[in-house]
Amino acid sequence: MHIVRHFPRQIHEEEDWITLADGCRLAVRIWRPMDAEREPVPAILEYLPYRKRDLTAMRDAQSHAYWAGHGYAGVRVDIRGSGESDGVLRDEYLQQELDDGVEILKWLGQQTWCTGDVGMIGISWGGFNGLQIAALQPPELKAVITLCSTDDRYADDVHHMGGCLLGDNLSWASTMFDANTCPPDPMLVGERWREMWQERLEGSGLWLAKWLKHQRRDDYWKHGSVCEDFSRIRCPVYAVSGWADGYCNAVFRLLAGLEVPRKGLVGPWSHKYPHLGVPGPAIGFLQESLRWWDHWLKDKDTGIMDEPMLRVWMQESVPPSARYETRPGRWVSEPSWPSPRIDMQPFRLTSGHDLLPMTTASTLPENHDETPLTIRSPLSVGLFAGKWCSYNAPPDLPHDQRDEDGGALVFQTARLDQDIEICGQPVVELEIEADQPVAMVAIRLSDIAEDDKATRISYGLLNLTHRDSDEHPQPLEPGERYHVRVLLKHIAQQFPAGNAIRLSISSSYWPLAWPAPAPVKLTIHPAGSRLLLPCRSPQPQEEAALPAFAPPEAAPPLAKTLVQPSQETWRVIRDLANDQTTLEVINDEGTFRLDDIDLELSVRITERYTYAYGNYDSISGWTQWERCFRRGDWMVRSVTRTLMTSTAESFRLRATLDAYEDDSRVFAKSWDEEIPRDLV
């Protein structure tokens, strides 16, 4: 990455508070041109709970200072109850958070250094609330860039997928369990820090229990889901994600559902800003964002809206790996979405485990067998699935799918005689029955190389009780046939000649998704089942005319000193003597010091997902976060632990929170809750 040290305008940086109408003070960090009082500038707001003073300080300094140097005010605000802001953070995307955001926009519009025009940008949480606040139509908000976010909090977020409960739901809950134990910095808030900290420790609660009480699409999830009424958003939106991210589907739904000027960008990246994007190639995203802001906040003709609505990275075939530095491919584009140039090509499933283009179905041999096929997957299917949302650290992408396919029904094409490229959302239609009233189906699409290595390209899950509705699920009638559609993740992928395409179907996918209450036998009727691939023809002349993205740039990073290096592991541990298997994930981020505020930070995260062979009551997920802040003789430490188990009837949560000042434990709390399963 190229570090830019000299900008068109000199930068002034300050930390301050915004006082809201109810007296709550929100902590804010502002980078703006030194001459902005004389020549006011638009503001770019990023509104997060991730602590501007320390946890996102490195990233913020490189992006917000960059925008400031190019004639904007980069503004980072900590949500109520986080960082140095007053209050307690009790859940994600509460109406209070959104109302506070509207007040922040009004405050920004009234500053003498601001023109009154504001844009919102954010990745993940900040991408969510950018869309949600846009739907409230504050007059100051003129444009949004939303990255790695969603329009649908139930169907396409970290909590559920296809009505199935995701393992990342526990992982993410543990992230916020830890985040809510972090104290404000005494250097800013003074002696109030201890009182504010105690209030957070006592009041934030166990979010996982709240979420598990909403296992279907109810009003809890509809709140903040802008897909409920896309017409509420009336400012331009630029939606960005990556194929390795958990949120790429939302880009395509936003392009299809919004009525405002909009653009979409999907690279090979995980849950990262594209200028920091891994797997690479990273791009000059900050330059791209300036083209967007200049157009909508400064009324400059940058040409950005003359370019295609959608640009995506067409990935080439690669061997399977849990981590990629880069994904080979090329940029392709579509002038609109849905694209009239995408053709849904059907492939038929056969009892002989073939995947046949429907155009050849009429040439099936006379003795072709349409016998139904059954599968009762072991719980081991999913150990090599990676995370629902990849951060590319520790190595969390799916590994060789041959380790999974022994417990799945597998259908495969012949070796391809020519390249096939897909762009969009693969769909699988199944005629299916189950021998239990609650069942799930997991479907994987893989690229099979000439050496038979299997790289997962896309996948989808469906809780079969949600076959007709996420809001009103219905139990299955064992033995009854159902026709269901399973939506896989959007993808742009080339399958080269000589490779094959494989479709794998399993009845479990642990720990990516929590299993059904009991072992399930699925019966697939091939004659009523098919795969639909969104095939796309290459457009070489059009692709050659696409303007190239610039190389990544950023403002100088903050100075930091490494005290202890990081450590990352991702291990599958199989204890054959006890028939017990554990997926263990360790992400020790080490210790580093932010030199300008003389603050040392460290965190160590451990996750274990366990089952005993064939025993569905043995499923468990356990997480532990150990966090420490230190400056001189001031030291604060917290340890959070969560254990989630289940029976056929309920989920059980046991959690503990311990907080320490120096070496003395100053707070302890525990939870033990049982929550009934609701057709999950």
Beta-strand residue fraction: 35-45%
Number of helices, counting only DSSP H or I runs of 4 residues or more: 12
Q: How is the largest sheet built, in terms of strand order? A: 2-3-5-4-6-7-10-11-12-13
Count the beta strands. Answer: 35
- Mean pLDDT metric: 96
Distance between the termini: 45 Å
The largest pleated sheet is described as: 10 strands, mixed
Shape: globular
Low-confidence stretches: none
Quickly give the structural class. alpha+beta
Rg over alpha carbons: 25 Å
- The helix content is 10-25%
Keywords: Hydrolase
Organism: Chromohalobacter moromii
Domain Xaa-Pro dipeptidyl-peptidase C-terminal: 290-555
GO molecular function, one term: dipeptidyl-peptidase activity
Brief digest:
With about 675 residues, the protein is α+β, with helices and mostly antiparallel strands. It is built from 12 helices and 35 strands.
What's the helix and strand layout?
Blueprint: E1 2-3, E2 11-19, E3 25-33, E4 41-48, H1 57-69, E5 73-78, H2 95-110, E6 114-123, H3 125-134, E7 141-147, E8 160-161, E9 164-165, H4 167-179, H5 186-189, H6 192-203, H7 207-212, H8 219-222, E10 237-242, H9 248-257, E11 262-267, H10 285-297, E12 310-315, E13 329-334, E14 343-349, E15 355-357, E16 373-375, H11 402-405, E17 409-412, E18 420-424, E19 427-434, E20 440-448, E21 454-463, E22 482-487, E23 491-495, E24 500-506, E25 522-524, E26 530-535, H12 540-545, E27 553-554, E28 560-564, E29 567-575, E30 580-594, E31 599-612, E32 615-631, E33 634-646, E34 650-661, E35 664-676
Parallel strand pairs: 1-27, 4-5, 4-6, 6-7, 7-10, 10-11, 11-12
Antiparallel strand pairs: 2-3, 3-5, 8-9, 12-13, 14-15, 14-26, 16-25, 17-24, 18-23, 19-22, 19-25, 19-26, 20-21, 20-24, 28-30, 29-30, 30-31, 31-32, 32-33, 33-34, 34-35
